[in-house]
Amino acid sequence: MFRSLRFRLPALFLLGIVLAGLVATLIAVRFFQSNTRAHAATELRAESAGIAQLYQQKAGIGHVSLASLKLALGSDRVFWVPAAPEGRLLAGPLPPLSASVLPQTAAGAPPRAFDFTVRGVSYLGVAQPVNPGNVYAGSLVVAEPESALRARWLQLAWELALAFGIGIPVAGVLVIFLARRIAEPLEALAAAADEVAVGHYDVTVPAHTGAGTEVDRLAARFDEMTARLAESEQLSRNFLMSVSHELRTPLTAIRGHVAALREGVVEDEASQERSLEVISEEAVRLERLVGDVLDLAKLDARRFALLREEVDMRALCERAYAAFAEEARARGIEYDLELDGGAVLITDGDRVLQIVTNLIANALHWTPEGGRVDLGLAATNGEVKVAVVDTGPGIEPQMAERIFRPFWSGDGGGTGLGLAIARELSLALGGRLELHSEPGHGSRFVLVLPVKAPQ
After folding, report:
1. Same domain, 367 and 445
2. Do both 83 and 143 map to the same domain?
3. What Å distances lie between residue 204 and 172, 196, 224, CA to CA?
């Protein structure tokens, strides 16, 4: 419980509020203390000046009496510090002070506040010189007990503590409410992640509030992640089924022809030759399938070696075109080759041929009988472009990226590796693979390679 976000989040918030409140309280009390002391000193300074002026009007030099003056003032805060050692206070509840306690004040400067103690009681006082007849007779000290000053800021401290005691529970309620608002969707996401970890991708994540908060963005990315994982699992399942089918078909043909040859079922030389041709063709088919899987693995791992050789793109396109001419004729597909000049590149010819043949094979797969497939070559602006155009069903915009994912097949047939390998190879060769398609109007795949070989 104490390690859960539901507990730790409000606890940290409340701790931060308490620390901030304590710091603010200490600063406020300290400031109030300083301000109270300065204000008291100002009041004492004004009062001492008034008392000294009144005393100077009524008293003479030497023997003086403050009794009537103190009774009129009604204050026990007045002390007398005589200038002469024999001077004394004739009346009053407190004894006179020694001159040693008075602070040194520069000529013309206002009297300074100072602290002193009488009979165990601490005071804050201001000493005002008494100069009847322009002769210094002593000082009148007007003082206030420190306990009175302390009572002022203690009152403030109690009021702040009361406000603090009311504010903390209110803040605690708000913090707990906000912490729940944050923790609940995170806990739901954690529970959903646990489900995904055991392979259950059809999980329910917290509903998005639409406010664009971090939790909303996390939930949205989680939705995308689970969708991708579910799709990846489905693609992997489809791939295993497709590969199993693709492997089983040639293996079955090879096994059948080998058994026929071994058992002597095929006796004439022409039939034996035909069986050997079928075995060879199916072996090549198996080799191509295994090669596709290995190529994809190498591309994903970035452990792919490329040759650097001179490649005649015109001759390469003619070779790729010829490889599918018979298939196009058998299906009644109009199949044309358009070579707009030629170019010689420093690249890996076998890999370029693999890309082009993958594009032609994909175009023939999706083009219906009686349709059209064109292979074209052009060189412009320092680039060589090989275009494969078909009159198939076209590709929806939302599917334009998906068709290049490994193991994905639009009709569930094949391994779904051809276009994925073609795009990865084009990038490895320093080029790119472009797609231009409109639903119902066919597709155009363009392999773009730089004339200057990439370093």
Report:
1. yes
2. yes
3. 31, 11, 12
18 and 101 co-located in one domain: yes
- Per-residue burial over 126-158, b if 16 or more Cβ lie within 10 Å, else e, is bbbbbebeeeebbbbbbbbebeebeebbeebbe
The answer as to whether 118 is a domain residue is: yes
Per DSSP, the three-state class of 379 is strand
Report field, pTM of the whole predicted structure over 0.85: no
Classify residue 255: in a domain, yes or no: yes
Give yes or no: residues 38 and 145 share one domain: yes
Q: Are residues 336 and 378 in the same domain?
A: yes
Same domain for 392 and 273, yes or no, is no
Number of domain units in the chain? 3
Which residue from 120, 141, 138 is spatially nearest to 130, judged by alpha carbons? Answer: 138
Query: Which domain, by its residues, includes 92?
Result: 5-154
Q: Which CATH number is 285's domain given?
A: 1.10.287.130
Q: Which helix (H) or strand (E) holds 336?
A: strand 334-340
User: In a structure prediction context, what are the per-residue pLDDT tens digits for the chain, which is 455 residues long?
Assistant: 556 666 666 677 777 777 877 787 778 777 777 888 888 888 888 888 887 777 777 655 444 444 444 433 445 566 666 655 444 433 344 566 666 777 777 666 788 888 888 777 888 888 888 776 676 667 778 888 888 777 777 777 777 778 777 877 877 777 777 777 777 777 777 778 887 777 777 777 765 555 567 777 777 788 888 888 877 777 677 666 666 666 676 788 788 878 888 877 777 778 888 888 888 877 877 777 777 677 666 666 566 667 888 999 999 999 999 988 888 988 999 999 998 877 888 898 888 988 998 899 889 989 999 899 999 999 888 889 999 999 999 888 888 888 887 766 666 555 667 788 888 888 888 899 999 998 888 999 999 998 865 55
Q: Other C-beta atoms within 10 Å of 84: how many?
A: 11
